[in-house]
Hints:
The structure is a single chain. By secondary structure, the protein is of the alpha/beta class. It has ten helices and nine strands. The chain has helices at residues 17-26, 41-53, 88-114, 121-128, 134-143, 150-158, 173-182, 200-211, 227-240, 273-282, and strands at residues 2-3, 31-34, 57-67, 73-81, 186-189, 217-222, 243-247, 258-259, 263-264. The strands form two sheets. It has a seven-stranded mixed β-sheet. A two-stranded antiparallel ribbon has the order 8-9. β2 (31-34), α2 and β3 (57-67) form a beta-alpha-beta unit. The longest helix has 27 residues, at 88-114. It is globular, with a radius of gyration of 18 Å. It starts with a strand and ends with a helix. The protein binds adenosine monophosphate, fe (iii) ion (2 copies) and zinc ion (ZN). One fe (iii) ion (FE) binds next to loops.
Amino acid sequence: xxxxxxxxxxxxxxxxxxxxxxxxxxxxxxxxxxxxxxxxxxxxxxxxxxxxxxxxxxxxxxxxxxxxxxxxxxxxxxxxxxxxxxxxxxxxxxxxxxxxxxxxxxxxxxxxxxxxxxxxxxxxxxxxxxxxxxxxxxxxxxxxxxxxxxxxxxxxxxxxxxxxxxxxxxxxxxxxxxxxxxxxxxxxxxxxxxxxxxxxxxxxxxxxxxxxxxxxxxxxxxxxxxxxxxxxxxxxxxxxxxxxxxxxxxxxxxxxxxxxxxxxxxxxxxxxxxxxxxxxxxxx
Length: 284
Ligand code: AMP
Ligand code: FE
Ligand code: FE
Ligand code: ZN
């Protein structure tokens, strides 16, 4: 069993890199990819711990990208760097996204203040450090009594349709796909169920459009997918010539119903064969 989608405290997970490696080792995962939002820091910190216990650790990242111009939707793209890590050009590009995230966070705090919420960016950074995300805002809103749960915080303040939402400067999905490829990586369309299309036909068409931008893979297996969803995405992978990836999207206590490796109520058991296919395809 492998897990190709996980988050640490370096983005919006609650397990430190060391704790995540220990959990993966306990499960005897054949491989773990750390795919923090906008940073390789969790992966880099986890590396020595993984080496010490002999865990196969893979370098990944999750990037928020804009579909359409003007943007109609945010799409999450995974990048996997299986041959010696990303090129410097890609790392520099990630630094720009980190700056955009910091800027968004300051504007988000200011917007929440206009809604009567007593919140300072320093408080957010104290729990999320420099890579704070909306889940950190949610936790703070909960602690301060503005909402009853993380989910409630998203509905009342943070969701794309909520009054507190502020947009962030995101790269286009096509640019991001190209950047991952140029950096030596395999790109994968994360949790396609969240494309939120009304019909399977519309969903297939959109995935076809993204595939045509040079996408390498699609996340067929994910905690949010039913068996029927995964079967549908597997067919689309075949149709569009995409590699298949899968992972739990583990966030620790920020998504408490999702387990590392096995997903939501044990709905995942991802085969190591998928990784072998990715390695074959990305061999230099
Ligand atoms: P950000 O990248 O800072 O805009 O935050 C996005 C992250 O917030 C996602 O990766 C999820 O982990 C989390 N998230 C988004 N929407 C929700 C929601 N409705 N409930 C809980 N977590 C969410
Ligand atoms: Fe997240
Ligand atoms: Fe995501
Ligand atoms: Zn994720």
